[in-house]
Amino acid sequence: MRISPDGTRRAGAAAVLAGSILASGVARAADDSGVKLPQLDIQTYPSQIFWLVVSFAVLYVLVSRVAVPRIFEVLEERQERIADDLDKAQTLQSEAAQAQADHEALLAEARARAAAAVREAQEAASRAGAEREEGARARVAEMVAEAERRIAASRAGALENIRDVASEAAVEAVARLIDSRPDEDAVTRAIAAVAQDGRP
Amino acid sequence: MASPVEQFALKPLVPLHVGGVDLSFTNSSMWMAITVIGVTAFLTLSMRSGRLVPGRWQSMAEVSYEFIANMLRENVGSEGRGYFPFIFTLFLFILFGNLFGMIPYAYTFTSQIIVTFAMAITVFVGVTVIGLVRHGLHFFTLFVPSGTPLVMAPLLVPIEIISYFVRPVSLSVRLFANMMAGHTMMKVFGGFAVLMGVLGVAPVALLVALTGFEILVAFLQAYVFTVLTCLYLHDAIHLH
């Protein structure tokens, strides 16, 4: 056997094995004078090279023309599909983010509007309350004034009556006392003067 | 018991001679054809429905596509995009060749040094041409690591040149040796199992573990071959 140093340990192991076979005398056929390595038979080389070239060329054509384009196509398709799906996922994600942002903006707006409405309602209510209070106060004041006016009028009326009664009584009293009727106008004036001096 | 390396023998299935050259369709050629059909079926049937949410098979096809696409992007950059079909084909061809080789009685064409070397030299020549077309004579600065003192150049340049030209050899031998050693080892343990009778349980158990290990190696070596191709491509495009 002719094996170069490159033949590694395994070739060496084979050699050792062959040696052991010889030593034990088990393999008579392995007698080194009788063994010819078929690999070194130059007669077989043309056929081997010829069929190697033929089969390798056929395989090369089949692999490069049929197999590789097909595998490439399938892998490409998958790559595209994955990229596509990733793109789609990205788009959907950004859309979802956009939707969320929109939703949040809407929510914030609604909240602000609600707060504004509440504030407005509160203001309106307090304004209306104030107005109502004002009105009520005015009405009460009016009523009070009216009542005062009525009281004043009735007091004036009463005073007038009292004056008349007083002048009549004075006239009657004078007539009884001195049996002469005094001038009614004079009595009234006198009484009025007295009333003017004193409390009305 | 048959020799552990007898499994690597080529058996012509359809004899074919063109101009005195033997181009027979052999068991190796058959498994190359099966690999071509297997890879094509794996990539096309799984993607037929092209579902948005992939099933198991579609996931595997997509994962392998993206695995190589990422490898190319990380190691070469965006300039490497045009080479994706080639790198992808290379990876799947080696991977399925390795994996189909794990089927009992199948033939592992990646255990043939000429096959791995043909692939490696194709990568090597292709990468060199790409570098020369892209950079012209400037391409040869690849052999002068940046920051090399002029005094060291006579020492470093030959080393760089040798390491550059060893690339196809290391690339091909790594894959070939791993596959061959693995399959030889499995054959040896299989032989033990047969010879040891009842005690053969032990080598069978080891064989089970080894099978799992070989499946790992099938993935690993396909990965290593592809990632190194990407690194060479990077060197050609970016010159370090």
Keywords for this structure?
heterodimer; A: 200 residues; mainly alpha; 3 helices; B: 240 residues; two-stranded antiparallel ribbon; 6 helices
Describe, in plain words, how this protein is organized in 3D.
The complex is a heterodimer of chains A (200) and B (240). Chain A contains 3 helices and no strands. In chain A, 82% of the residues lie in helices and 0% in strands. Residues 1-8 and 17-33 of chain A have low confidence and may be disordered. Among the domains of chain A are: 1-40, no CATH class; 153-197, no CATH class. By secondary structure, chain A is mostly helical. Chain A starts with 7 loop residues before the first helix and ends with a helix. Chain B has a two-stranded antiparallel ribbon. A two-stranded antiparallel sheet of chain B has the order 2-3. Chain B has one domain. In chain B, α5 runs antiparallel to α6. The model of chain B has no long low-confidence stretch (mean pLDDT 92). The longest helix of chain B has 43 residues, at 153-195. In chain B, a hairpin with a 2-residue loop joins β2 (17-18) and β3. With 240 residues, chain B is mostly helical. The chains are: A mainly alpha (200), B mainly alpha (240). Chains A and B meet through α1 and α2 of A and β3, β4, α1, α2 and α3 of B.
